[in-house]
Specification:
Two copies of one chain form a homodimer.
Chain A (H helix, E strand, L loop, with lengths): L2 H16 L6 H8 L3 H7 L3 H23 L6 H17 L1 H5 L1 H7 L1 H27 L11 H23 L4 H16 L5 H11 L6
Helix pairs in contact in A: 1-2, 1-4, 2-3, 4-5, 5-10, 7-8, 8-9, 9-10
Chain A binds a DNA duplex through helix 3.
DNA sequence: ACCTGAATAGAACAAATGGTCTAAACCAGG
DNA sequence: CCTGGTTTAGACCATTTGTTCTATTCAGGT
């Protein structure tokens, strides 16, 4: 494994554990058993490490969406994408635990994220249209309702990890399952009877909290 | 105005503007035109400033809930509490922008917040029961649905500021109004026809984004 | 064997930070 | 006008941090 990849892996691990601010180049180097000078040789700017990890997350998420875009619209596809997305986010959770600070610190990342966000919003809008045409999603009850649903969905998707970090007691698996259910619950009352029947088993697959 | 109050006011202002990490005791003191030694005389531990500001926010939120608890359950009461809560949160937004870091840094605050959270959850559960008995809220479609609604509600309530900081373009007023609508949209599909009629004007009071 | 460029360790540095300490200024009450 | 506590300014200190720099080592090609 290349040294720069080992640096990224170690940084990811330590960032997830303790946050970006408490972890310095010296900590990461010590954890790896290399000198911090060496680390700075590979990543002259500390921020480059964070930025690279952000790009890695984006790449993983793109993989998820690429795979799923060819599947037919439906509840199973929706749930798959939810689970895979949440799992990927969790692997890079430090980014979402420190969301605002990191975005403020790295303007390039912020710009990228904003552009990505509008792009993803369009994707989800398309998916919702597909669900509606398949007779799974009810039409809007008032103009802009589905836009609100999208906003709710992404807000929850971006911050469930932060809330869980403070409030959730339980294993990582339970955590992911719980918040995936809460997110899926967002769409339930917008579904047709058929859609509700399909989603219900997932929503009521009980777990603590 | 007592010096310690001026310190809190200045710290709140600077924290909201630049976050807690970039702002040091020296920055706050310089902004006020006093020496940092003097500031440390009033707040020997820097964390005390943050903790005190957190307690101030909690006190303001308690005021809001105290005032509204005596009002009859209904959509107007719900919207009032939403608006007042969001406004108070926004005044102390640095706390919510740096949520995880601050909670990690101040275990006392985290413990207090967790206890407050379960308390608030019970309050909201009671309010939902009131709405249901008043014929405004539909009964649960599946066990735990309203608990999920509560979870969605608080997650959005705690993190709308963070998302807005990165994504929202527009005035503070528009920002508050937009996210209050998104939050109110959470409950809309759970309402009876009467409830929906009452809420609809608020949801469709259009604004940009 | 030798050369060359990449990789590594570790010293060095300047800047910033939280906190302490000392001495001066201030300001009521006698 | 004294006095004793409170408030303030500013020096001081130990520590940390990102970054740079200088040697030294290593590995592969000739």
């Amino acid at each position: 494994m290349r040294t720069s990849d080992r640096i990224l892996a170690t940084a990811l691990h330590l960032f997830n554990l303790h946050g970006t601010d408490s972890m310095t180049v010296r900590h990461i180097a010590r954890e790896m058993g290399i000198s911090h000078g060496n680390l700075c040789y590979h990543f002259p700017r500390t921020e480059d490490i964070i930025q690279q990890l952000y790009l890695n997350l984006v790449a993983e998420l793109n993989d998820v969406f690429g795979q799923l875009q060819h599947q037919p619209p439906g509840i199973p596809t929706l749930l798959d994408s939810l689970r895979l997305t949440f799992a990927a986010q969790y692997r890079y959770r430090f980014l979402l635990l420190d969301f605002v600070r990191i975005m403020r610190r790295l303007p390039a990342v912020q710009a990228h994220f904003r552009q990505l966000y509008t792009q993803r919003r369009e994707q989800l809008r398309g998916a919702l249209n597909g669900l509606r045409e398949a007779g799974i999603l009810l039409p809007e009850q008032y103009p802009g309702q589905h836009d609100q649903l999208i906003a709710q969905f992404y807000l929850l998707g971006d911050f469930w990890i932060a809330e869980a970090e403070i409030l959730f007691e339980g294993s990582e698996t339970d955590k992911l399952a719980y918040y995936a259910r809460v997110a899926a619950g967002l769409i339930y009352p917008h579904l047709t009877d058929r859609g509700r029947q399909e989603l219900l088993p997932f929503l009521t697959s009980a777990a603590p909290q």
